[in-house]
From TrEMBL:
InterPro entries: Sif. The lineage of its organism: Bacteria, Pseudomonadati, Pseudomonadota, Gammaproteobacteria, Enterobacterales. This is Secreted effector J SseJ. Pfam families: Sif. It comes from the Bacteria.
Length: 164
């Protein structure tokens, strides 16, 4: 069972054979009658996972942007069962990212390369330089201040400790 989607007791498996059928087919995958019945009674996100796999294999024919391809990959990872999330690997290279899904034996069941735009990351770096994130300030050594709310006086340190 290469990929399991869904959470808890309600999971469905997508076999390596199903991956190959989706890869070879030009049409989006369709659910069988039994799969539709299961999807009606149990939310496993099986149909959404198949749709993501189809988008990943056929992103060029569908004219998907690199952002949309990464979005489908991230959505598929989010739909995967907890134990399968480590099967999703992104290998970043200089001008492309390799999106990989491995089976239980470590074999690639899906591997595609998507170009990345370094200028977008350069812009993000410039924004971080212009607007740096504030540093974390420890609140442990601060001296409590007295504040007044109407007729009630509070020491801020004591007041906030009630909520922690």
């Amino acid at each position: 069972m290469p990929l399991s989607v869904g959470q808890g007791y309600f999971t469905s498996s997508i076999s390596a054979e199903r991956f190959n059928v989706i890869k070879e087919s030009a049409r989006p995958p369709e659910l069988s009658l039994w799969e539709k019945i299961k999807a009606y009674f149990f939310t496993t996100y099986y149909a959404e996972a198949l749709e993501c796999i189809f988008k990943l294999y056929h992103y060029q024919e569908l004219n998907l942007t690199p952002v949309q391809v990464r979005g489908a990959y991230i959505k598929l990872r989010a739909l995967a069962s907890q134990g399968c999330k480590e099967q999703f690997i992104i290998e970043s290279q200089e001008h492309a990212d390799k999106l990989i899904i491995k089976d239980d034996n470590g074999e690639n069941i899906l591997s595609i390369e998507v170009e990345c735009h370094p200028e977008a990351f350069g812009l993000a770096k410039e924004i971080n330089k212009l607007y740096p994130k504030p540093k974390n300030i420890s609140l442990g050594n601060t001296k409590p201040k007295n504040i007044s709310l109407g007729n009630i006086n509070y020491q801020t340190g004591i007041f906030w400790r009630q909520f922690i």
